[in-house]
Amino acid sequence: MLATALATLAIGAGCGEKEESRAGGEPEPFAVALDFYVNPDHAGLFMALERGYFEQAGLEVDPQVPSDPSAPIRQVAAGRADLAISYEPEVLLARDQGLDVVAIAALVPRPLTSLISLPEAGIEDPADLDGKTIATAGIPYQADFLDAILAEEGLALGDVRQVDVGLGLLPAVLSGRADAMLGGFRNIEGVDLAERGRDPRVVPVDDLGIPTYDELVLVADSDRVADDPELLRLFIAALERGTRDAVDDPAAATEAVLDAGEGLEPELTRAEVDATLPLLLAEGESRPFGYMDGQEWERFAGFFADRGLLGTRPQASELLTNKLLPGEIPE
Question: Between helices 294-306 and 88-96, what is the axis angle to 10°?
Answer without folding.
Answer: 60
